[in-house]
Amino acid sequence: MKKLGFLAFLFFFLLAFPGQGQAASGATHIKLDGREIKLTKDSQVQEISGSVLVPLRVIVEELGYNVNWDSKTKKISIEQGGNTLDLTLNKKTAHVNGAKIIMPAAPLLKGNITYVPLRFVSEQTGLKVLWDNKLKTAFLTSPDSESGSDTGSNSGTTAGNVSGNSTPVPAPGGSSDTGTSSGSAGNGASGTTGGQSQLASINGISFSDNRLIVAIDGTTITKVSKLTGPDRIVVDLTNTKFSDSFLSGQPLNSAGQGLLPVTGFPDVKQVRYSLFSSNPSTVRLVLDLNYSKGYQLLNAGDGLVIVDLNQDSSGPATSPGGNGKKLVVIDAGHGGQKDPGAISITGKYEKTFTLAVVLKVQELLKKEPDIDFVLTRSDDTYPTLSDRVKIANDLNADLFVSVHGNSAVATATGSETYYTRPDSIELANVMHKYLVEATGLPDRKVRQKSLQVTRETKMPAVLLEVGYLSNKNDEALMYDDAFQERVAEGIVAGIKEYLGLQ
Ligand SMILES: [Zn+2]
């Protein structure tokens, strides 16, 4: 079981939680790196209030760790290979090698079985955890490299995230835009009108650099209207639907609408989207504006529909980067309910860290006259890894930078920069120099690894593991505003040096 041992044990221990009520009839499963772990009838995986729970005893039997249970103090101490984990029944505080960790719920004892919520552990240990509700199976994947890098390089799993509370899509403000659309109609782009057989599908919706960007497979017909009272721009995409992967990452609410909050761009309040009509299948996007604003529609049939508020339709149409400026794509790792990323030593999400840094990068890039930029996400949503790659490739970007936080054993600390293809080495070296300088953390070097976003993009591409969320010191810094700002400045400085824009 390689080095996985103790981590796996921690994981299993913490995975558990008392269940009132067994999981519904039917067997549940745990697969560790593809290998099924036997569960007895009364030690099934349980789902309670959205959390996935696994009994400790099974795991103890499976892995054979040294466990001390003090029934007086209700303390559970687990040791393996010099690592210790201390838990107390009914208390949310645990210690891993002396470092305090707060769990979302306290361990509980039921019969002889100790249970702890999964979410806390999931990536505390470096294990990837996915719960497939259909198969009633918890899939555990051990880290695939010594670095403990958490960046999955595949997006093919159908397993959903196990973490508990769901964040409902906020209800859209304002009335639905079913009214008559007066005002200037946008230019319809090319596209055949034949039947519904070949619907285009939307893979991603994002708003960055004052542009609405819709990533689409297939050909769509666009109609844009500018409406008043309140001011808004309505974009209808005919012959178009939402892709399944989009809907699983950015689900619509019960009214069939989704919402993309917009911050940092004074023209726009928010973006709403819905399936406006099923015959013909039409997706409607509404940009709720703070005041009347011109726009430029771009639908060149290249996989992106762009509504650009930086210029109105009287000006020449330019796509991002098509104006002599360099175009960079900045990717905040993970996102949405589907993929919170690693969970930090104090229970914070990696996705929150990555977004915070990227939004700071955005603010800095806005001031750069020679750089255009696109964010793969600007809020808590989950574009798939393929979507992120597609955005960069469709835009023919000059470079791609993905921001992540690492997770492994508690002692691991420092900054790493990953690349995959040889044409990215120079970018990796430049970015790493600025990253290490900005973080002040140990230099864990530039490393080559096959990661989807650095492998399948067609331009120089790097993935920054800024620091270790599993390390007390790194983690405290990583959620510090001033530290994030320094990292953002380092990223922009690296981009500028690489592009020769200093
Ligand atoms: Zn990550």
UniProtKB/TrEMBL annotation:
Residue ranges that the Swiss-Prot or TrEMBL entry lists as coiled coil: none
Gene Ontology CC annotations of this record: outer membrane-bounded periplasmic space
Signal peptide boundaries: 1-23
Gene3D superfamilies with a match to the protein in the record: 2.60.40.3500, Copper amine oxidase-like, N-terminal domain, Zn-dependent exopeptidases
Top-level taxon: Bacteria
Keywords, alphabetical: Hydrolase, Signal
MF-aspect GO terms: N-acetylmuramoyl-L-alanine amidase activity
Ranges annotated as biased composition (Low complexity): 145-184
All residue ranges annotated as the MurNAc-LAA domain in the record: 389-496
SUPFAM superfamilies recorded: Copper amine oxidase, domain N (SSF55383), Zn-dependent exopeptidases (SSF53187)
GO BP, one annotated term: peptidoglycan catabolic process
Compositionally biased spans, kind Gly residues: 185-194
SMART domains: Ami_3
Region (Disordered): 141-195
Name by which UniProt lists this protein: AMIN domain-containing protein
